[in-house]
Each structure stands twice: as structure tokens, then as C-alpha cells.
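As a warm-up, study this chain.
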Amino acid sequence: METLEIWLVFLTVVLLGCTVHAWRLGNEKRDVAFLGATSVLCGAGAAAVVLL
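Now compare it with the structure written out below.
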């Protein structure tokens, strides 16, 4: 794996963990949705980089 792929996968995992933690703490739905959407976008970027 290249460095960019590793960083994108790492960022995706960290954002996903933050999203789950924020959801468990009871943060506002808007904030949890923003973290989730950002995590999905990073995951999509990681998948695109791996496939290309």
C-alpha cells in the first residue's frame, strides 16, 4: 500500500470511531451525521485510490 492509501484508511477508521463515540455520548444528530458523512467520504476516497 502506498502512503496516501494508508493515511486515508487510517483517517476513515479514526473518524468512524469518533462517530460511534459521539453517538454513544448522545451528541446532536446533526453532529453525528456530519462525522458519519465525513467518514464515508474518506472511505470512498480510500477505495478510489486503492482501485486506481
